[in-house]
Write a structure and sequence with these properties.
alpha/beta; 17% strand; two-stranded antiparallel ribbon; Rossmann fold
């Protein structure tokens, strides 16, 4: 039986990276709670399928094909949402990509592209919807970070997620008293397309989607999911030398071993 939750009836939400994984699950969760949802991603067919599934379940959904790496697409996304529903009350900055290429082997253009998707897109999307939220003194900005934004795991990817965390926490302080909230959700490993080849049990994206929806109605600084990862985040901050040792024992380092790591980039959006 579904636990009673606060309704989002009348709210309009944009979810980026909504064609699969956490984004798709979040769009479905927000719609189930009564919000009108604008789903955005690059993969038009999969995006349309997610929106169709929401409508078939009785929700309200609009699919907008957009590449968040393109500032013009971000502006058009905000305009499409406002044209369709009148305003934007919730923004979920979920779109992003994963990165496993050793820095010495990373093409500069690819590094810049990752920063645009993982960090700059969230800043520009927030900028696009924030004036309307401030004018109405109502709104919620949710950024989907990563445990890699609390624990240094990979130089390029962690840099973008540390940056996104700093953006979200500072934005929260800047918006205090305005009626607009800013929250961060930092997932550990979640079973999505990006982790399909990783062995072992993992929670599904619905866990993160529930946390995101809860942050809309009950904002707070940051939610780490699953909750067990609080211990890892604490270790990184309180005992960094021990965290270094734990990392070396758990992860293969191409620099330490003198070997090259295969270039792997997996896109969420």
């Amino acid at each position: 039986m579904r636990t009673a939750v606060k309704t989002l009836s009348g709210e309009v939400a944009i979810v980026t990276g909504a064609s699969s994984g956490i984004g798709a699950a979040t769009a479905a969760e927000l719609a189930a709670r009564g919000a009108s949802v604008v789903l955005a991603a690059r993969r038009a067919d999969r995006l349309a399928a997610q929106a169709r599934a929401i409508r078939q379940a009785g929700g309200i959904a609009l699919a907008v094909t957009a590449d968040v790496a393109d500032p013009a697409d971000i502006v058009q996304l905000a305009e499409r949402a406002a044209d369709a529903f009148g305003q934007v009350d919730v923004l979920v900055n979920n779109a992003g990509s994963f990165w496993e290429t050793a820095l010495a082997k990373s093409p500069p253009a690819d590094i810049a592209a990752l920063v645009r998707v993982n960090l700059l897109s969230a800043m520009l999307a927030t900028r696009a919807v924030l004036p309307g939220m401030l004018a109405r003194r109502h709104g919620a900005i949710i950024c989907v970070g990563s445990l890699s934004g609390r624990v240094a795991m990979e130089p390029v990817y962690s840099a973008t997620k540390y940056g996104l965390r700093g953006f979200s926490l500072a934005l929260r302080r800047q918006l205090a008293g305005t009626g607009v909230s800013a929250s961060l959700v930092s997932p550990g490993r979640i079973r999505t397309e990006m982790t399909s080849d990783v062995p072992g049990p993992m929670p599904g994206p619905e866990l993160v989607a529930t946390a995101i929806a809860n942050l809309v109605t009950s904002p707070r600084r940051e939610a780490i999911v699953p909750a067990k990862h609080h211990a890892i985040a604490w270790l990184e901050q309180a005992l960094p030398n021990l965290a270094d040792l734990a990392y070396r024992q758990r992860h293969w380092s191409p620099v330490r071993e003198g070997e090259e790591k295969e270039e792997t980039v997996a896109w969420k959006s």
